[in-house]
Specification:
Helix content: 10-25%
Radius of gyration: 17 Å
Low-confidence stretches: none
Shape: elongated
Length: 97
């Protein structure tokens, strides 16, 4: 027998950006080559998603700054800290699959 579950995972992620790194030239290049982000808030959300999905690792005091992240290069040039602060998981069992 197979069972289907609907699983919801929510992460609370803290992202601290180096706002001075997000120059108008950088923002324009990022929009032209990746996503049409208009402000640093959108970059913070994007970096949070990358961390939540495991595409990048934590960035903190003394670690993680040298990671290469597509669109940013060395992530430590843009991010002072990025870490998962909490995770909540819930699930429901759906009808048999």
């Amino acid at each position: 027998m197979r069972r289907k579950f609907n699983v919801k995972v929510e992460h609370e992620i803290i992202v601290v950006l180096r706002e001075e790194a997000f120059t108008s030239d950088f923002m324009q290049g990022f929009r032209e080559n990746f996503f049409s982000f208009d402000d640093v808030h959108e970059h913070a959300e994007h970096i949070g998603r990358l961390l939540a999905c495991g595409i990048m690792g934590d960035v903190g005091r003394g670690y993680g700054h040298d990671q290469f992240v597509e669109g940013y290069g060395r992530i430590g040039d843009f991010v002072t800290a990025a870490t998962i602060d909490g995770t909540d998981t819930s699930s429901t069992m759906a009808a048999e699959a």
